[in-house]
Amino acid sequence: MSKAVATKGFKGTPGQIRQQRIERVGAISISFIAAIWMLANLIKAPEQFVQVAISGLRNGLIYALIALGYTLVYGIIELINFAHGDLFMLSAEVFDKQTVQSIHL
């Protein structure tokens, strides 16, 4: 049986500590590469970058609305009812169209 070790904020066995360090370094590396890539795209084509960012945020908000609807239904009846999916999608689409028309995109 291996002993638990604590070093620099990590706790666990030596294998777990190594795994946590690898995961942390990997996450930092991927975040750094993504930030450089986004900055390069922002410099190269700022108009396209803004359009893609707005589209991504809009799609993310639609997914969030759908997830919120499912969460509300599950919280009330404690059952996932996929029959409500069309209602959530309809309300998300109406909200999306109204937002686009109000911003004039």
Which characteristics define this entry?
flat; 105 residues; two-stranded antiparallel sheet; 2 domains; single chain; mainly alpha
Please tell me about this protein's structure.
- The chain is mainly alpha-helical.
- It folds into two domains: 1-44; 46-105, no CATH class.
- It has three helices and two strands; from the N terminus they run E-E-H-H-H.
- It has helices at residues 14-44, 46-77, 85-103, and strands at 5-7, 10-12.
- It has a two-stranded antiparallel ribbon with strand order 1-2.
- A hairpin with a 2-residue loop joins strand 1 (5-7) and strand 2 (10-12).
- The chain starts with a strand and ends with a helix.
- 0% of the residues are buried.
- The mean pLDDT is 83.
Trace the largest sheet across and list its strands: 1-2
CA(first)-CA(last) distance:
62 Å
What share of residues are in beta strands?
5-15%
Q: Quaternary arrangement of the chains shown?
A: single chain
The SS-based structural class is mainly alpha
